[in-house]
Predict the 3D structure of the following.
Amino acid sequence: MTVAIDGYRMTPTEIEKTFRDEAGRALATLIRLVGDFDLAEDALQDAFATALERWPAADRPSNPRAWLVNVGRNKAIDRIRRSIAFRGKQDELTHELLLNAEASDAAGDRIALDDDMLRLIFICCHPAFATEVQVALTLRTVCGLTTAQVARAFLVSEDAMAQRLLRAKQKIRLAGIPYEVPEREALGPRLRGVLAVIYLVFTEGYVATSGEELMRPDLAREAIRLGRLLDALVPQRGEIKGLLALMLLHDARRAGRETPGGDIVLLEEQDRTLWDFCQIAEGLKLVEEALRIPGRPQSYAVQAAIAALHARAPSYGETDWPQIAGLYEVLLRISPSPVIELNHAAVVSMVDGPARALALIDALEARGGLKGYELMPAVRADLLRRLGRNEAARAAYLAATAATQLEPLRRLYARRLAELDASGSA
Protein backbone atom coordinates (compact mmCIF):
# COMPACT_ATOMS: atom_id res chain seq x y z
CA MET A 1 0.00 0.00 0.00
CA THR A 2 1.15 3.56 -0.75
CA VAL A 3 -0.41 6.89 0.06
CA ALA A 4 -0.12 10.15 -1.86
CA ILE A 5 1.65 12.92 0.00
CA ASP A 6 2.78 16.31 -1.27
CA GLY A 7 2.57 15.19 -4.87
CA TYR A 8 4.22 11.77 -4.59
CA ARG A 9 3.34 8.30 -3.34
CA MET A 10 4.43 7.65 0.24
CA THR A 11 5.40 4.03 0.84
CA PRO A 12 4.78 2.09 4.06
CA THR A 13 8.54 2.26 4.65
CA GLU A 14 8.41 6.06 4.65
CA ILE A 15 5.45 6.04 7.01
CA GLU A 16 7.33 3.63 9.27
CA LYS A 17 10.30 6.01 9.34
CA THR A 18 8.01 8.89 10.33
CA PHE A 19 6.56 6.70 13.06
CA ARG A 20 10.00 5.72 14.32
CA ASP A 21 11.10 9.37 14.43
CA GLU A 22 8.04 10.42 16.43
CA ALA A 23 7.25 7.30 18.46
CA GLY A 24 9.44 7.99 21.49
CA ARG A 25 7.98 11.38 22.34
CA ALA A 26 4.46 10.29 21.40
CA LEU A 27 4.77 7.30 23.74
CA ALA A 28 6.05 9.53 26.54
CA THR A 29 2.95 11.73 26.26
CA LEU A 30 0.60 8.76 26.07
CA ILE A 31 2.13 7.28 29.22
CA ARG A 32 1.38 10.56 31.01
CA LEU A 33 -2.19 10.59 29.71
CA VAL A 34 -3.14 6.97 30.34
CA GLY A 35 -0.93 6.29 33.35
CA ASP A 36 0.10 2.83 32.18
CA PHE A 37 3.14 1.77 30.13
CA ASP A 38 1.58 -1.27 28.47
CA LEU A 39 -1.70 0.45 27.62
CA ALA A 40 0.23 3.39 26.13
CA GLU A 41 2.41 1.08 24.02
CA ASP A 42 -0.63 -0.82 22.73
CA ALA A 43 -2.47 2.42 21.98
CA LEU A 44 0.50 3.80 20.05
CA GLN A 45 0.67 0.65 17.93
CA ASP A 46 -3.05 1.01 17.23
CA ALA A 47 -2.46 4.62 16.19
CA PHE A 48 0.33 3.57 13.85
CA ALA A 49 -1.93 0.98 12.21
CA THR A 50 -4.54 3.69 11.73
CA ALA A 51 -1.92 6.01 10.24
CA LEU A 52 -1.05 3.38 7.63
CA GLU A 53 -4.71 3.36 6.61
CA ARG A 54 -5.59 7.05 6.84
CA TRP A 55 -2.64 9.14 5.71
CA PRO A 56 -3.59 10.07 2.16
CA ALA A 57 -2.34 13.44 0.95
CA ALA A 58 -5.36 15.47 2.09
CA ASP A 59 -5.45 13.95 5.58
CA ARG A 60 -1.77 13.62 6.45
CA PRO A 61 -1.29 15.85 9.54
CA SER A 62 1.20 18.71 9.70
CA ASN A 63 2.23 17.45 13.17
CA PRO A 64 2.44 13.64 12.98
CA ARG A 65 3.42 13.27 16.63
CA ALA A 66 0.41 15.22 17.88
CA TRP A 67 -1.82 13.17 15.55
CA LEU A 68 -0.40 9.91 16.93
CA VAL A 69 -0.96 11.10 20.49
CA ASN A 70 -4.53 12.15 19.82
CA VAL A 71 -5.45 8.93 17.98
CA GLY A 72 -3.54 6.83 20.51
CA ARG A 73 -5.44 8.44 23.37
CA ASN A 74 -8.73 7.62 21.66
CA LYS A 75 -7.57 4.05 21.05
CA ALA A 76 -6.67 3.75 24.74
CA ILE A 77 -10.17 4.94 25.67
CA ASP A 78 -11.63 2.32 23.31
CA ARG A 79 -9.54 -0.39 24.99
CA ILE A 80 -10.72 0.73 28.43
CA ARG A 81 -14.35 0.70 27.27
CA ARG A 82 -13.97 -2.82 25.95
CA SER A 83 -12.39 -3.88 29.22
CA ILE A 84 -15.31 -2.37 31.12
CA ALA A 85 -17.77 -4.23 28.91
CA PHE A 86 -16.02 -7.53 29.62
CA ARG A 87 -15.24 -7.10 33.30
CA GLY A 88 -17.37 -4.20 34.52
CA LYS A 89 -14.71 -2.75 36.79
CA GLN A 90 -15.65 0.55 38.39
CA ASP A 91 -12.03 1.67 38.74
CA GLU A 92 -11.53 1.33 35.00
CA LEU A 93 -14.59 3.49 34.38
CA THR A 94 -13.04 6.09 36.69
CA HIS A 95 -9.80 5.75 34.72
CA GLU A 96 -11.63 6.54 31.48
CA LEU A 97 -13.38 9.57 32.95
CA LEU A 98 -10.12 10.95 34.31
CA LEU A 99 -8.44 10.30 30.98
CA ASN A 100 -11.09 12.29 29.11
CA ALA A 101 -11.03 15.11 31.66
CA GLU A 102 -7.24 15.44 31.86
CA ALA A 103 -6.28 15.05 28.22
CA SER A 104 -6.16 18.28 26.28
CA ASP A 105 -6.34 18.35 22.51
CA ALA A 106 -2.98 16.83 21.52
CA ALA A 107 -2.52 19.08 18.48
CA GLY A 108 -2.40 22.13 20.74
CA ASP A 109 -0.53 20.59 23.65
CA ARG A 110 2.92 21.56 22.37
CA ILE A 111 4.57 22.27 25.72
CA ALA A 112 3.52 18.90 27.17
CA LEU A 113 4.68 17.13 24.03
CA ASP A 114 8.12 18.70 24.43
CA ASP A 115 8.49 17.97 28.15
CA ASP A 116 7.00 14.48 28.41
CA MET A 117 10.15 12.68 27.30
CA LEU A 118 12.12 14.26 30.13
CA ARG A 119 9.36 13.24 32.57
CA LEU A 120 9.52 9.69 31.24
CA ILE A 121 13.29 9.56 31.77
CA PHE A 122 12.85 10.70 35.37
CA ILE A 123 10.37 7.85 35.88
CA CYS A 124 12.81 5.35 34.39
CA CYS A 125 15.52 6.68 36.73
CA HIS A 126 13.49 6.57 39.94
CA PRO A 127 15.69 5.59 42.91
CA ALA A 128 13.34 2.67 43.60
CA PHE A 129 14.87 0.86 40.61
CA ALA A 130 18.30 -0.73 40.35
CA THR A 131 20.60 0.80 37.76
CA GLU A 132 20.17 -2.10 35.33
CA VAL A 133 16.38 -1.72 35.52
CA GLN A 134 16.67 2.03 34.86
CA VAL A 135 18.78 1.31 31.77
CA ALA A 136 16.49 -1.50 30.55
CA LEU A 137 13.36 0.65 30.90
CA THR A 138 15.05 3.47 29.01
CA LEU A 139 16.17 1.22 26.18
CA ARG A 140 12.67 -0.21 25.86
CA THR A 141 10.54 2.93 26.22
CA VAL A 142 12.74 5.88 25.25
CA CYS A 143 14.98 4.25 22.64
CA GLY A 144 12.23 2.00 21.31
CA LEU A 145 14.34 -1.16 21.32
CA THR A 146 12.49 -4.47 21.33
CA THR A 147 12.56 -6.65 24.41
CA ALA A 148 14.82 -9.07 22.52
CA GLN A 149 17.30 -6.30 21.74
CA VAL A 150 17.33 -5.13 25.36
CA ALA A 151 17.86 -8.72 26.49
CA ARG A 152 20.90 -9.03 24.21
CA ALA A 153 22.36 -5.85 25.71
CA PHE A 154 22.16 -7.45 29.18
CA LEU A 155 23.16 -10.94 28.01
CA VAL A 156 19.96 -12.50 29.40
CA SER A 157 17.09 -14.39 27.81
CA GLU A 158 14.19 -12.52 26.25
CA ASP A 159 11.77 -14.12 28.75
CA ALA A 160 13.90 -13.01 31.70
CA MET A 161 14.06 -9.44 30.38
CA ALA A 162 10.32 -9.38 29.68
CA GLN A 163 9.66 -10.35 33.31
CA ARG A 164 12.11 -7.72 34.56
CA LEU A 165 10.39 -5.00 32.53
CA LEU A 166 6.95 -6.20 33.58
CA ARG A 167 7.87 -6.02 37.27
CA ALA A 168 9.25 -2.49 36.81
CA LYS A 169 6.08 -1.28 35.07
CA GLN A 170 3.91 -2.87 37.76
CA LYS A 171 5.97 -1.16 40.44
CA ILE A 172 5.45 2.22 38.76
CA ARG A 173 1.69 1.65 38.63
CA LEU A 174 1.20 0.14 42.08
CA ALA A 175 3.53 2.54 43.88
CA GLY A 176 1.96 5.52 42.16
CA ILE A 177 5.33 6.91 41.06
CA PRO A 178 4.44 10.37 39.74
CA TYR A 179 4.96 11.22 36.09
CA GLU A 180 6.89 14.44 36.66
CA VAL A 181 10.25 16.16 36.88
CA PRO A 182 11.00 16.34 40.62
CA GLU A 183 11.45 19.61 42.48
CA ARG A 184 14.98 20.98 42.28
CA GLU A 185 15.94 19.80 45.77
CA ALA A 186 14.88 16.24 44.89
CA LEU A 187 16.85 16.05 41.64
CA GLY A 188 20.12 14.90 43.19
CA PRO A 189 19.33 11.21 43.74
CA ARG A 190 18.15 10.84 40.15
CA LEU A 191 20.47 13.17 38.26
CA ARG A 192 23.26 10.65 37.74
CA GLY A 193 20.83 8.11 36.33
CA VAL A 194 19.10 10.70 34.16
CA LEU A 195 22.42 11.78 32.65
CA ALA A 196 23.35 8.15 32.05
CA VAL A 197 20.13 7.34 30.23
CA ILE A 198 20.21 10.53 28.15
CA TYR A 199 23.68 9.51 27.03
CA LEU A 200 22.35 6.02 26.41
CA VAL A 201 19.67 7.47 24.13
CA PHE A 202 22.37 9.44 22.31
CA THR A 203 24.62 6.39 22.00
CA GLU A 204 21.83 4.36 20.41
CA GLY A 205 21.38 7.21 17.94
CA TYR A 206 25.11 7.54 17.29
CA VAL A 207 25.73 3.81 16.73
CA ALA A 208 22.57 1.70 16.60
CA THR A 209 22.43 -1.58 18.51
CA SER A 210 21.26 -3.52 15.48
CA GLY A 211 19.65 -3.23 12.08
CA GLU A 212 20.53 -1.93 8.64
CA GLU A 213 21.40 1.66 9.53
CA LEU A 214 24.50 2.83 11.39
CA MET A 215 22.83 5.82 13.02
CA ARG A 216 19.44 6.96 14.25
CA PRO A 217 19.73 10.75 14.03
CA ASP A 218 16.27 11.18 15.56
CA LEU A 219 17.50 9.69 18.83
CA ALA A 220 20.73 11.69 18.80
CA ARG A 221 18.80 14.93 18.25
CA GLU A 222 16.33 14.00 20.99
CA ALA A 223 19.14 13.32 23.47
CA ILE A 224 20.72 16.68 22.68
CA ARG A 225 17.36 18.40 23.12
CA LEU A 226 16.93 16.71 26.51
CA GLY A 227 20.45 17.74 27.47
CA ARG A 228 19.58 21.36 26.71
CA LEU A 229 16.39 21.10 28.79
CA LEU A 230 18.30 19.66 31.71
CA ASP A 231 21.01 22.33 31.46
CA ALA A 232 18.31 25.00 31.64
CA LEU A 233 16.58 23.20 34.52
CA VAL A 234 19.76 22.75 36.59
CA PRO A 235 22.30 25.38 35.44
CA GLN A 236 25.97 25.49 36.34
CA ARG A 237 26.41 21.74 36.76
CA GLY A 238 29.64 20.53 35.22
CA GLU A 239 28.36 17.03 34.51
CA ILE A 240 25.34 18.36 32.59
CA LYS A 241 27.34 20.84 30.52
CA GLY A 242 29.95 18.16 29.93
CA LEU A 243 27.39 15.66 28.66
CA LEU A 244 25.77 18.22 26.38
CA ALA A 245 29.19 19.19 25.00
CA LEU A 246 30.11 15.53 24.47
CA MET A 247 26.94 14.82 22.51
CA LEU A 248 27.26 17.97 20.39
CA LEU A 249 30.88 17.25 19.49
CA HIS A 250 30.20 13.63 18.54
CA ASP A 251 27.05 14.48 16.59
CA ALA A 252 28.88 17.23 14.70
CA ARG A 253 30.79 14.52 12.80
CA ARG A 254 27.61 12.73 11.67
CA ALA A 255 27.74 13.71 7.98
CA GLY A 256 31.25 12.32 7.62
CA ARG A 257 30.66 9.02 9.36
CA GLU A 258 29.06 7.05 6.54
CA THR A 259 29.02 6.83 2.78
CA PRO A 260 25.87 7.60 0.74
CA GLY A 261 25.36 3.83 0.60
CA GLY A 262 25.41 3.51 4.40
CA ASP A 263 28.90 2.07 4.89
CA ILE A 264 30.98 3.18 7.87
CA VAL A 265 33.70 5.77 7.29
CA LEU A 266 36.26 5.49 10.08
CA LEU A 267 37.63 8.61 11.77
CA GLU A 268 40.96 8.46 9.96
CA GLU A 269 39.19 8.43 6.58
CA GLN A 270 36.52 11.06 7.22
CA ASP A 271 36.19 14.23 5.16
CA ARG A 272 36.39 16.82 7.91
CA THR A 273 34.90 19.52 5.74
CA LEU A 274 31.57 17.68 6.21
CA TRP A 275 31.63 18.23 9.96
CA ASP A 276 29.27 20.78 11.53
CA PHE A 277 31.66 23.47 12.75
CA CYS A 278 28.92 25.64 14.27
CA GLN A 279 27.97 22.72 16.48
CA ILE A 280 31.63 22.07 17.24
CA ALA A 281 32.06 25.70 18.35
CA GLU A 282 29.08 25.35 20.69
CA GLY A 283 30.48 22.11 22.09
CA LEU A 284 33.94 23.61 22.65
CA LYS A 285 32.43 26.54 24.55
CA LEU A 286 30.46 24.15 26.77
CA VAL A 287 33.60 22.09 27.48
CA GLU A 288 35.37 25.19 28.71
CA GLU A 289 32.39 26.15 30.89
CA ALA A 290 32.18 22.63 32.34
CA LEU A 291 35.88 22.51 33.21
CA ARG A 292 35.78 25.96 34.85
CA ILE A 293 33.08 24.96 37.34
CA PRO A 294 34.78 24.38 40.73
CA GLY A 295 34.99 20.89 42.13
CA ARG A 296 36.21 17.45 41.18
CA PRO A 297 36.50 16.88 37.42
CA GLN A 298 33.37 15.21 36.08
CA SER A 299 33.46 12.16 33.84
CA TYR A 300 31.36 13.67 31.05
CA ALA A 301 33.45 16.84 31.04
CA VAL A 302 36.66 14.82 30.64
CA GLN A 303 35.10 12.74 27.85
CA ALA A 304 34.01 15.99 26.20
CA ALA A 305 37.58 17.31 26.47
CA ILE A 306 38.72 14.18 24.60
CA ALA A 307 36.08 14.77 21.90
CA ALA A 308 37.22 18.40 21.70
CA LEU A 309 40.77 17.35 20.87
CA HIS A 310 39.46 15.21 18.01
CA ALA A 311 37.27 18.08 16.80
CA ARG A 312 40.15 20.59 16.87
CA ALA A 313 42.63 18.36 15.00
CA PRO A 314 43.08 19.51 11.37
CA SER A 315 43.63 15.88 10.35
CA TYR A 316 43.79 12.43 11.86
CA GLY A 317 47.58 12.46 11.73
CA GLU A 318 47.72 15.75 13.61
CA THR A 319 45.57 14.54 16.51
CA ASP A 320 47.16 15.11 19.92
CA TRP A 321 47.18 11.44 20.90
CA PRO A 322 49.46 11.83 23.96
CA GLN A 323 47.08 14.38 25.50
CA ILE A 324 44.09 12.16 24.72
CA ALA A 325 45.87 9.22 26.38
CA GLY A 326 46.50 11.42 29.42
CA LEU A 327 42.84 12.40 29.62
CA TYR A 328 41.84 8.73 29.48
CA GLU A 329 44.14 8.11 32.43
CA VAL A 330 42.32 10.87 34.33
CA LEU A 331 39.03 9.27 33.34
CA LEU A 332 40.19 5.88 34.62
CA ARG A 333 40.95 7.45 38.00
CA ILE A 334 37.63 9.26 38.43
CA SER A 335 35.30 6.83 36.66
CA PRO A 336 36.99 3.45 36.11
CA SER A 337 35.27 0.93 33.86
CA PRO A 338 36.32 -1.87 31.47
CA VAL A 339 34.94 0.09 28.47
CA ILE A 340 37.12 3.09 29.33
CA GLU A 341 40.08 0.72 29.71
CA LEU A 342 39.40 -0.61 26.21
CA ASN A 343 39.18 2.89 24.76
CA HIS A 344 42.37 3.86 26.59
CA ALA A 345 44.16 0.86 25.09
CA ALA A 346 43.06 1.86 21.59
CA VAL A 347 44.51 5.35 22.14
CA VAL A 348 47.73 3.92 23.61
CA SER A 349 48.19 2.10 20.32
CA MET A 350 48.50 5.51 18.63
CA VAL A 351 51.14 6.63 21.14
CA ASP A 352 53.16 3.53 22.08
CA GLY A 353 52.18 1.18 19.26
CA PRO A 354 49.73 -1.72 18.84
CA ALA A 355 51.86 -4.23 20.76
CA ARG A 356 51.61 -2.20 23.98
CA ALA A 357 47.87 -1.77 23.47
CA LEU A 358 47.39 -5.50 22.87
CA ALA A 359 49.15 -6.25 26.16
CA LEU A 360 46.71 -3.95 27.97
CA ILE A 361 43.74 -5.73 26.35
CA ASP A 362 45.17 -9.14 27.25
CA ALA A 363 45.40 -7.99 30.89
CA LEU A 364 41.83 -6.67 30.75
CA GLU A 365 40.52 -9.97 29.38
CA ALA A 366 42.52 -11.95 31.95
CA ARG A 367 40.63 -10.10 34.69
CA GLY A 368 37.33 -11.04 33.04
CA GLY A 369 36.57 -7.52 31.89
CA LEU A 370 34.14 -6.98 29.00
CA LYS A 371 33.29 -10.65 28.58
CA GLY A 372 30.70 -10.74 25.81
CA TYR A 373 31.25 -7.08 24.83
CA GLU A 374 30.84 -7.03 21.06
CA LEU A 375 33.50 -4.39 20.30
CA MET A 376 36.28 -6.19 22.16
CA PRO A 377 37.12 -8.63 19.31
CA ALA A 378 36.94 -5.73 16.81
CA VAL A 379 39.56 -3.71 18.70
CA ARG A 380 41.73 -6.81 19.08
CA ALA A 381 41.40 -7.57 15.36
CA ASP A 382 42.52 -4.08 14.40
CA LEU A 383 45.60 -4.28 16.62
CA LEU A 384 46.51 -7.73 15.29
CA ARG A 385 46.09 -6.50 11.71
CA ARG A 386 48.44 -3.58 12.36
CA LEU A 387 50.97 -5.99 13.85
CA GLY A 388 50.85 -8.13 10.71
CA ARG A 389 49.42 -11.13 12.57
CA ASN A 390 46.91 -11.82 9.83
CA GLU A 391 45.62 -15.24 10.88
CA ALA A 392 44.91 -14.10 14.41
CA ALA A 393 43.35 -10.92 13.03
CA ARG A 394 41.12 -12.99 10.76
CA ALA A 395 39.85 -15.05 13.70
CA ALA A 396 39.16 -11.88 15.68
CA TYR A 397 37.25 -10.25 12.79
CA LEU A 398 35.13 -13.38 12.43
CA ALA A 399 34.39 -13.23 16.17
CA ALA A 400 33.48 -9.55 15.86
CA THR A 401 31.15 -10.34 12.95
CA ALA A 402 29.38 -13.02 14.97
CA ALA A 403 29.02 -10.67 17.95
CA THR A 404 27.31 -7.74 16.22
CA GLN A 405 23.72 -7.31 15.03
CA LEU A 406 24.53 -4.10 13.10
CA GLU A 407 24.84 -4.61 9.35
CA PRO A 408 27.22 -1.66 8.64
CA LEU A 409 29.67 -3.15 11.15
CA ARG A 410 29.33 -6.55 9.51
CA ARG A 411 30.19 -4.96 6.15
CA LEU A 412 33.20 -3.18 7.68
CA TYR A 413 34.54 -6.45 9.07
CA ALA A 414 33.93 -8.14 5.72
CA ARG A 415 36.04 -5.44 4.04
CA ARG A 416 38.82 -5.99 6.55
CA LEU A 417 38.71 -9.74 5.95
CA ALA A 418 38.92 -9.15 2.20
CA GLU A 419 41.95 -6.89 2.72
CA LEU A 420 43.62 -9.60 4.78
CA ASP A 421 42.93 -12.13 2.02
CA ALA A 422 44.36 -9.75 -0.59
CA SER A 423 47.52 -9.12 1.44
CA GLY A 424 47.98 -12.84 2.01
CA SER A 425 47.81 -13.64 -1.71
CA ALA A 426 50.04 -10.75 -2.78
Notes: The first strand starts at residue 3 and ends at 5. The longest helix spans residues 64-87. The two ends are 51 Å apart (CA to CA).
